[in-house]
Specification:
10 strands, Butyryl-Coa Dehydrogenase, subunit A, domain 1, 3 domains, Butyryl-CoA Dehydrogenase, subunit A, domain 3, 4-stranded antiparallel beta sheet
């Protein structure tokens, strides 16, 4: 069963304009009709909804923040954050794969790639002909992104990659992968470079598909490189710039994961509010009881606060400002309140919240990943503390 009541999102002052509201309406309409009805099936069968991504490409949403000259829609980051939010509200799995494709699998090529790379890859990624992924995490490294063990050595006119990447979103279906690898281990993080690897390249294989607690319809797998030869020109930027590129990529990525968490939280709130109005106990709807009213009041307030943090960070990015602090704050707060809101959603549903007939249990399983992916809550707190001069 799904919620029938929707808590409308109001305009947010200077952060959003009429065009942003139109984008929200269009994406929400599509997500409500095309994505939400199959969200339970996508989760249950751990199925990547290829048909949905084809339609997202046709709607110019897969290249939303990519300039029109490279096949994108030329939208701003607020439009992108709204889109992630609305897709995530309909299906957390689809929202995660969408965000990974845009902010991780495509945007680094736009931000740091050559004109040849942009012209070759971005139009196909923007139109949904290709799916992208980004590979930073490795077994045993986790949050220590600088401890890369995957290597890349230059042999003539080719780079040769060896190593394994773990927990890579979209890896099973990706046509293009952006890989971080050590080109000079003696230089530490300054010896990391990034590369574009095409699907089907000899020496590249998907080595493990994970079975996950949540976000099951968004495939997560390992990538293994065994003497994988790629053209010399497939390096992104200059040798040794990979770690710096990764940090800048993650700044934007944290906004998208915050938006995803926000969308899941909104879905959980909508479901809880609808249930509280319909479910009766002791002769009246449970929404008439003060405990339930208090829960819903807290949920609504926390969601509104998260949305303001998120839109502010996206607004700053649109105005070409660094968002190390603001992006981390938005991602940290949105992801943690999402888990809190989803937990309360289950509590309001009571026993029904614990069974698969209602979406409440899926919301909580999906929300938890937002506290882990693209920098754990602990890493976000460290980043915020550093920005405070500590």
């Amino acid at each position: 069963m799904t919620s029938t009541v929707t808590h409308d999102v109001q305009p947010y002052g200077e952060f959003l304009d009429e065009e942003h509201q139109k984008i929200r309406e269009a994406v929400r309409d599509f997500a409500t009709k095309e994505i939400a009805p199959k969200s339970a099936e996508v989760d249950r069968n751990a199925r990547f909804p290829e048909e949905t991504f084809k339609k997202l490409g046709e709607m110019d949403l897969l290249g939303l923040p990519i300039p029109e000259e490279y096949g994108g829609a030329g939208g701003d980051y607020r439009s992108y954050a709204i889109t992630v939010e609305e897709i995530g509200r309909a299906c957390g799995s689809t929202g995660l794969s969408y965000a990974a494709h845009v902010s991780l699998g495509s945007n680094p090529i736009y931000m740091f790639g050559t004109e040849e790379q942009k012209n070759h890859y971005l139009p196909k990624l923007a139109k949904g002909e290709w799916l992208g992924c980004w590979a930073l995490t490795e077994p045993g490294t986790g949050s220590d992104a600088a401890a890369q063990k995957t290597t890349a050595r230059l042999e003539g006119d080719h780079w040769v990659l060896n190593g394994t990447k773990q927990f890579i979103t979209n890896a099973t279906h990706a046509d293009v992968a952006i890989i971080m690898a050590m080109t000079d281990q003696s230089k530490g993080r300054k010896g990391i470079s990034s590369f574009i690897v095409d699907k089907g390249t000899k020496g590249l294989s998907v080595s493990k598909v994970e079975k996950k607690m949540g976000m099951r319809g968004s495939p997560t797998a390992s990538l293994t490189f065994e003497d994988c030869h790629i053209p010399k020109e497939n390096i992104i930027g200059e040798v040794g710039e990979g770690y710096k590129q990764a940090l800048m990529t993650l700044e934007g990525g944290r906004i998208s994961i915050g938006a995803l968490a926000l969308g899941i939280a909104q879905a959980a709130f909508d479901a809880a509010l609808n249930y509280a109005k319909q479910r009766e106990a002791f002769g009246q709807p449970i929404g008439k009881f003060q405990f339930i009213q208090g829960y819903l009041a807290d949920m609504s307030t926390q969601i509104s606060a998260a949305r303001l943090l998120l839109y502010h960070a996206a607004w700053m990015k649109d105005h070409h400002k660094r968002v190390t602090l603001e992006g981390s704050q938005a991602k940290l707060f949105a992801s943690e309140i999402a888990s809190r809101v989803c937990n309360l959603c289950i509590q309001i549903h009571g026993g029904y919240g614990y069974i698969e007939d209602f979406p409440a249990e899926r919301f909580l399983r999906d929300a938890k990943l937002c506290e882990i992916g693209e920098g754990t809550s602990e890493i976000q707190r460290l980043l915020i503390a550093r920005q405070l001069g500590l």
